[in-house]
Amino acid sequence: MAKTHSQYICQQCGYSQVGWAGKCPNCDTWGSLVETIVEKKVGKNTSGKTKIGKKPKELSSIPSRRTPRKTTNISELDRVLGGGLVSGQVSLLAGEPGIGKSTLLLQLANKLGDTLYVSGEESAHQLKLRADRLKVTRKTIQIMEETDVDSIIVQIKEAKKLSCIIIDSIQTMTTQDLSGLAGSVGQVRECAFRLLSAAKGRNVPLFLVGHVTKQGVVAGPAVLAHIVDTVLWFEGDKTTTLRLLRAVKNRFGPTDEVGIFSMEEKGLISMTDPEKMFLTKGRSNVAGSVVSSVMQGSRPIVVEIQSLVVSTKLAFPRRVAQGIDSKRLELLIAVLARRCGLPLYDYDCFVNITSGIKVKDTGVDLAICLSLASAYFDKALPNKLMAIGEVGLLGEIREVVAEAKRLREAKRLGFNMTISQGNTKFLNQAIKKLLR
To answer: What is the value of pTM for the model shown?
Structure first.
């Protein structure tokens, strides 16, 4: 037999006590005492024998087998997951409030059917209003307004047919075995463990919605990210329709894939042709506009870079960057001034990546430099030109990752003229060839 009770245990040194205190009296650490369920064994072992666990196996003796997957019928979500859902897979979906987490999961429930959707934040009527807007018509979706994790587990075990479980959100769940408030470290950790065990027992995929902190990380203990199989991060600017889904952790697939969605009135739409979103419709020859290619996961995405160069009346000219690192922009402007002779120190420079996407790929360096030079000379570049390459401090053009793949994608989209390290070695050569 065993008895259980809750006790506060220090996560730093392991010190335990019954009552809560502001800091651990042993290691003098604030906030390290976490309420935890402790199990005490009662009675003696009558056999007197030590229990032997499972014996280790040789790696070569373990048979190889493919992991069966079930498609979600949402192409961009399948891409990020690695081809679909695995039975018993536990996923944590995090993102800023209002970014579209509940919308994505409600659409997923409509695609899969036989889904238990547990809402701890919104009422059933609020979910119904969203479902009507998204045209969710599946009759096998069960909505449960509950925050008691033990009641939810009972429902999971009693359900006859279950394809997916959605918990929105894990920070609202509680168990009566702990006295802490919802969202506390002890409650979040214990509730996540219990839901994970229930989902694995039924061999059903489980989605946990997680809150984020002001610093932009998943709220709750770090163990929450460790115990789940997949951590998905949903991001985007609320003022635009662009939404990106990334896999921060994935035990059943890659972590370098990115799902691209467009937030429309009828819900999230998978963008199988993202260049339609990132390129200006009916592009014409305008000074300061250049097209480049960035890698998002394993696929190249075409983006448009726009620049504006105007004379300044300030002692220190402005450098404004939207979608790229401002320090990177200052570095490229310095290269243009020193290696190419462009006196940009007398001009305000504005650079923008259209459609609100944020780019960290240095493969757009050449396109940014050509865009600034085009705006400075007020001379448009060819409409079917694509620039790919990293620019060094010496003014040289360097090869980038997956350059051949980017060039093939450019050719497929009709960009018959490319500037890269393969045909141009230095930045000043590219400017002379195109603008002088």
So the answer is: 0.81
